[in-house]
Design a protein that fits this description.
mainly alpha
Length: 487
C-alpha cells in the first residue's frame, strides 16, 4: 500500500520540481539567476524540513498523522498556486513546502519500521518504494510537459492538487495498516500523547508563515539554512562521539563519512530542474524527428531508468550476493559518485561536437541523465535503507531526517552552481557554450575526486560497519520498552 500511496504523494512535488524555474521565468518574469536561486531554496526547504518531519513524526505526531496532515497542506498549496498571481504563488509555495517537507520522512519511517535492522529484505523494499515514487514523477513530469507546451499552468497545478488528494484517500482507507511501530511516541501515556499532538500541530502551523517569509528572501534564507545544516552536522558529530555503544558509534561514524559523499552527489543531481533545465532549453537540439521534446519530459529519462532499474537492481543484487559477490554500501556509494562524474564530463564532449548553431545533440544529454539515474539508484534508496542498519533506535528518525537535510543543503549548492550559468536572453548557444564547458568540466572533475576518495576508503568503511554488539566498560544495554497501544 505504501508503494501506491507513494505514487500519488509524489505527483504534486513532481509538477513543481520540474516546472518552478520555467514558471518563474516565463510567467512571473524572474531572471534566470533569481529563478535558480528560488529553486535552490525550494529544494532546501523541502529536504531540510524532512529533519523536522523525522523528529515530529516519532515524538509529537505519529508518522501516519503527520503524513496525512502534510498532504492536506500540499493540496491547499497547489490550489493557491493555481490562482496564477505572484502573491498567491508564494503563499501556496509556503503551504506546499511545509507539507511536503514534513511528510516525506514519515512514509520512509513507516516503511523502515516494517523490518528488523538485520532483515535482508529492507534494501529491496526501498528499491521498490523508490520505483513507486518515480512512477509518480513520470506521470507528473509528463503532465507538466504537456501543459508547458501551452503554458496552461493553472490546469497543471489543479492536476497536482487532485493527485495529492488521492494520496490522502488511500492513507485513510488503510489507516490501521499504517500504524507506527517502535517509536518514542508509542511509549507515551494518553495525556502525554494529547499534549504532544497539540504541540506538534502548533509547530506545523507556525512553520507556514516562516517559510512564506523566507521564500521571498531566497538569498538570506539560503545562508540561514546552510547555518542550520552546519549546526545539525556538529550535533550529529557530538552524538556520535558521546555514544556509548561501540558498534553503534562505529556505524554512526560510517554514516557521517558516507553523508559527505552523498552531499557531493546530490549537489550535482539537484541541478537537473535548474541549471541543466536551462541548458536543455537554450543549448540542446530537442527535436526528435518532427517532435520537440518538452523540458519536463527530459527528466522522465530519470524516472524510466529508476522505475525499470529499481526492481531489476534489487533482483540483481540478490542474485550476485547469492553467488558470493560482495556488494555493500561503501562500494555502492563510490560507484554512484563515479557515475555522476561521468554524467557531467560527457556534456563538454557533446558541446565540443555541437553543430554550427552551437546546440548539442540530444543524445549527450540523454546519456548524462542515464548515468546520473543509475548513480541515484546506488545512493538514494540504498541510503534510506542504510538508516535502519546504521542508526541507533533513539536516533533513527533524526538521522533519517538529517540524511534528507543533506539533500536540502545540496539543493542550495546546486542553486549556487546554476547561478554560474550565463543568462540566455540575447545570447546564442555558441556564445554561452564555453561557460558550460568550464562549469560542467569542473563539477564532473570534483565528483570524480570524491568518488575515488570513497573507493580508497572502502576497506576502512567496511571495518566501521559492523553487526556485533559492543559496549564500553561499565555501559549497560538499554532495555526494550513495552509495546503500548497504537497511535
Amino acid at each position: 500500500m505504501l508503494f501506491f500511496i507513494q505514487i500519488f504523494a509524489t505527483l504534486g512535488f513532481a509538477v513543481l520540481y520540474s516546472t518552478l524555474v520555467l514558471y518563474a521565468t516565463k510567467h512571473l518574469k524572474l531572471s534566470a539567476k533569481e529563478a535558480t536561486t528560488l529553486m535552490g531554496v525550494f529544494g532546501a526547504f523541502n529536504y531540510g524540513l524532512h529533519l523536522f518531519g523525522g523528529y515530529l513524526g516519532g515524538r509529537f505526531l505519529s508518522n501516519r498523522n503527520l503524513f496525512v496532515g502534510g498532504m492536506a497542506l500540499q493540496v491547499i498549496g497547489c490550489g493557491c498556486i493555481a490562482v496564477g498571481t505572484a502573491a498567491m504563488f508564494y503563499i501556496g509555495l509556503a503551504f506546499f513546502l511545509t507539507g511536503c517537507g514534513l511528510n516525506v520522512t514519515c512514509i520512509n519511517m513507516m516503511l523502515t519500521q516494517r523490518f528488523t535492522p538485520e532483515d535482508p529484505r529492507r534494501e529491496g523494499a526501498f528499491l521498490w518504494n523508490y520505483a513507486g515514487m518515480n512512477v509518480g514523477f513520470f506521470v507528473g513530469f509528463a503532465a507538466a510537459g504537456y501543459y508547458q507546451a501551452t503554458e496552461s499552468y493553472s490546469s497543471l497545478f489543479i492536476f497536482a492538487t487532485i493527485g495529492n488528494f488521492m494520496a490522502i484517500v488511500l492513507a485513510l482507507f488503510n489507516w490501521t495498516t499504517l500504524t507506527d511501530r517502535n517509536t518514542p511516541l508509542r511509549e507515551a501515556t494518553s495525556q502525554q500523547f494529547r499534549l504532544r499532538l497539540l504541540a506538534g500541530n502548533l509547530i506545523v502551523l507556525a512553520l507556514i508563515p516562516v517559510v512564506w517569509f523566507m521564500l521571498q528572501r531566497p538569498e538570506g534564507a539560503g545562508t540561514i539554512l546552510k547555518s542550520i545544516c552546519g549546526a545539525v552536522a556538529l550535533t550529529l558529530i557530538y552524538l556520535t562521539v558521546r555514544h556509548r555503544d561501540r558498534r553503534e558509534r562505529r556505524n554512526m561514524t560510517a554514516y557521517l563519512i558516507l553523508t559527505l559523499g552523498s552531499l557531493a552527489f546530490w549537489s550535482l543531481y539537484q541541478m537537473a530542474p535548474s541549471g541543466l533545465m536551462l541548458f536543455a532549453v537554450h543549448n540542446v537540439d530537442r527535436m526528435i524527428g518532427s517532435v520537440e521534446i518538452q523540458p519536463q519530459w527530459i527528466q522522465n529519462i530519470n524516472t524510466v531508468v529508476i522505475v525499470i532499474g529499481g526492481p531489476l537492481l534489487a533482483a540483481a543484487f540478490s542474485s550476485l550476493r547469492a553467488r558470493g559477490w560482495r556488494i555493500d554500501i561503501p562500494k555502492q556509494f563510490a560507484t554512484s559518485l563515479i557515475l555522476m562524474a561521468l554524467g557531467f564530463l560527457i556534456l563538454p564532449v557533446g558541446i565540443k561536437l555541437a553543430g554550427v548553431d552551437g546546440r548539442s545533440a540530444f543524445g549527450w544529454l540523454f546519456g548524462s541523465y542515464v548515468l546520473q539515474s543509475i548513480g541515484e539508484l546506488l545512493i538514494s534508496p540504498i541510503g534510506y535503507a542504510m538508516i535502519g542498519k546504521l542508526a541507533p533506535r533513539q536516533y533513527q528518525g533524526v538521522m533519517m531526517g538529517s540524511w534528507m537535510l543533506v539533500t536540502g543543503l545540496a539543493s542550495l549548492f546546486a542553486g549556487d552552481f546554476s547561478g554560474m550559468i550565463p543568462e540566455p536572453q540575447g545570447s546564442t548557444a555558441v556564445a554561452t557554450n564555453p561557460d558550460y564547458v568550464k562549469l560542467f568540466g569542473a563539477l564532473g572533475a570534483g565528483a570524480l575526486v570524491v568518488g575515488v576518495a570513497l573507493v580508497v576508503l572502502i576497506p576502512f568503511l567496511r571495518k566501521l560497519i559492523t553487526d556485533k554488539a559492543e559496549t564500553t566498560p561499565g555501559a549497560t544495554p538499554t532495555p526494550a520498552g513495552p509495546a503500548p497501544a497504537a497511535v
